[in-house]
From TrEMBL:
Pfam families named among the record's database cross-references: Nucleotid_trans
Enzyme class: transferase
Sequence similarity: Belongs to the glycosyltransferase 77 family.
Protein's name in the database: Glycosyltransferase
Keyword set, alphabetical order: Cell wall biogenesis/degradation, Glycosyltransferase, Golgi apparatus, Signal-anchor, Transferase, Transmembrane
Organism domain of life: Eukaryota
Xref: PANTHER family: EXPRESSED PROTEIN-RELATED, NUCLEOTIDE-DIPHOSPHO-SUGAR TRANSFERASE DOMAIN-CONTAINING PROTEIN
EC number of this enzyme: 2.4.2.-
Membrane topology type: Single-pass type II membrane protein
């Protein structure tokens, strides 16, 4: 399919896409690119120190919600796209569950629905997710699996809707079912005051909407796709670590930096043998636990 002249999103997606029309998408604003060690830089560090992750940056599309983050993305020579949003300021930190945070999450949902309509599959990843291993081997290549989504706590059955979903990391295939999902999901925005988009998707799931659409949804095990809500039990198998169950960027940065140190300690062990692996423990996510007291 030829790119329409002047279609900047089409050009950006084509530049980042794999041969199978799959793109890795992360969304940032000014709060994620400024400071002594910005979240975007830490996110990229994960690809540098991870196993089999460096080449994946070629397929990463950074979606910037303001001019500063767009300029930073361009400076880093990444695949970049500036998402224009008239009349809304998405520049500063949007504290979890604030009105601006909820607005930003809905704008994200609308944008990602557009990507699906253009025929692209994608992995969406928050920038507070460290990629320590290439996640693709832990994701099903089966094209009948429409959505593979991370969980705050894995309940043991990867097909059970009792798993609490987290929209900070998921892989979705572009087809009529997933486009319908995003259209219905976004249409609930104005009747969902005080709810973030993840809450609304969770509600749709429990109302049987996934089954109604015929969606095949796989819920990802935290052994491979972990987070601060539930650490991976196996450092030899973990692919991603998400700073979920955390309220502020500063706390996420502090505790994700500790994850990087833990990972380096594991990787630098003189011999990564059974004893080293068995004794490995993640450092407590103290800053994130304390962020809820503020």
């Amino acid at each position: 399919m030829s790119v329409i002249h002047g279609d900047k999103l089409g050009e950006a997606l084509a530049a980042a896409s794999t041969m199978s029309k799959t793109v890795i998408i992360a969304i940032v604003n000014k709060a994620y690119v400024e400071g002594d060690k910005p979240m975007l830089d830490l996110f990229l560090d994960g690809f540098w120190i991870g196993e089999g992750t460096r080449d994946l940056v070629d397929h990463l599309l950074i979606v910037a919600m303001d001019q500063t983050s767009y300029e930073r993305c361009r400076f880093l020579r990444l695949n970049c796209y500036k998402l224009e949003t008239d009349g809304v300021d998405f520049v500063g930190e949007k504290v979890y569950m604030s009105d601006d945070f909820i607005k930003m999450m809905w704008r994200r949902t609308l944008f990602l629905g557009d990507v699906l309509k253009r025929g692209y599959n994608f992995i969406f990843t928050d920038t507070d997710v460290l990629w320590l291993r290439n996640p693709f081997p832990f994701l099903s290549p089966n094209q009948t699996t429409d959505l593979q989504i991370s969980t705050d706590k894995f309940k043991g059955n990867e097909w059970a809707e009792s798993n609490p979903i987290n929209t900070g990391f998921y892989m979705i295939r572009s087809n009529n079912r997933t486009v319908s999902l995003f259209d219905t999901w976004y249409a609930k925005k104005d009747n969902s005051t005080g709810l973030k988009e993840q809450d609304v998707l969770n509600k749709l799931m429990h109302q049987g909407f996934f089954r109604k659409l015929g969606l095949r949804v796989r819920f990802l095990d935290t052994v491979h796709f972990s987070g601060f809500c539930q650490d991976s039990r196996n450092v030899t198998a973990v692919a991603t670590v998400h700073a979920n169950c955390c309220r502020r960027i500063a706390a996420k940065l502090a505790d994700l930096t500790r994850v990087v140190h833990d990972w380096r300690r594991y990787k630098n062990s003189s011999s990564v043998d059974g004893r080293t692996t068995a004794s490995f423990r993640w450092t407590n996510h103290t800053a994130c636990k304390n962020s809820w007291r503020e």
